[in-house]
Specification:
The protein is an all-beta fold. It is built from no helices and eleven strands. Strands 2, 4, 5, 6, 9, 10 and 11 form a seven-stranded mixed beta sheet that branches. The protein is globular, with a radius of gyration of 14 Å. The N and C termini lie far apart (40 Å).
Amino acid sequence: QVQLVESGGGLVQAGGSLRLSCAASGTMFRISAMGWYRQAPGKQRELVAVISISDIINYADSVKGRFTISRDVAKNTVSLQMNSLKPEDTAIYYCNAERSTPRFTFWGQGTQVTVSS
């Protein structure tokens, strides 16, 4: 089992910045990637950014150039630096971890990000 705890959400004005962090604990063996997803009211959960154990990174087109994902292997943490925030970035942000074998996805409890215009 893997436990994920997010922190760093909050309320910010448009154009501002926030940094989300996710602390992972438990059996990290065979975790192949960690990332961030978000879900806005009335919408499906969507990928924001993901980083693999080989440091391959993918971003949603909507956040490219504004968000940066990073990880600290020693501390089992993954962070999301969010700059130039827009009201449409408002959502609950979830940390996730993908286990390769057996295949399973772990989720954190989520942290609210609200961007005011």
